[in-house]
Specification:
Blueprint: H1 9-20, H2 26-33, H3 41-54, E1 57-62, E2 65-70, H4 74-90, H5 94-103, H6 109-127
Antiparallel strand pairs: 1-2
Length: about 130
């Protein structure tokens, strides 16, 4: 697993695009984000430079363009972010998180069924 890399909300937007399809140029990223953000080429360049320093992306020079690739795997980023969120908000307790969601009636019948399935599979794995 890659080291823990903390991504800002904006960096997540860029990573999602790169995980979806890579490589991409800055111009392609600007075009993909134009309806969602008002980011300029300069803004995206600055963010990519920060992300490169963190070890989340890399680039390859091709002609006058830089092609950006993700280094950080989506699964690793999701795992780290989930753990960080649980730790920060719910003191690391999945039970507290689910209780909070249930208390706010934020869980649908489908969500509850999915949780039962996940817990059943997890229980079978721990019995092995």
């Amino acid at each position: 697993m890659t080291e823990n890399i903390n991504l800002s909300d904006g960096e997540w937007k860029l990573m999602k695009l790169l995980w979806e399809k890579a490589p991409r140029t800055i111009a392609q990223l600007v075009s993909s984000l134009k309806d969602d953000t008002a980011w300029t080429k300069g803004t995206i360049f600055m963010m990519l430079s920060r992300m490169e320093a963190k070890g989340a992306v890399r680039f390859k020079k091709e002609g006058r363009s830089k092609l950006y690739y993700p280094i950080l795997k989506k699964e690793d980023a999701t795992f780290y972010e989930t753990g960080s969120f649980l730790s920060k908000v719910f003191e690391g307790s999945i039970g507290l998180m689910v209780a909070s969601m249930a208390g706010q009636k934020a869980l649908s019948k489908e969500d509850i069924d999915e949780l039962y399935d996940i817990l059943g599979k997890a229980e079978k794995e721990t019995d092995k």
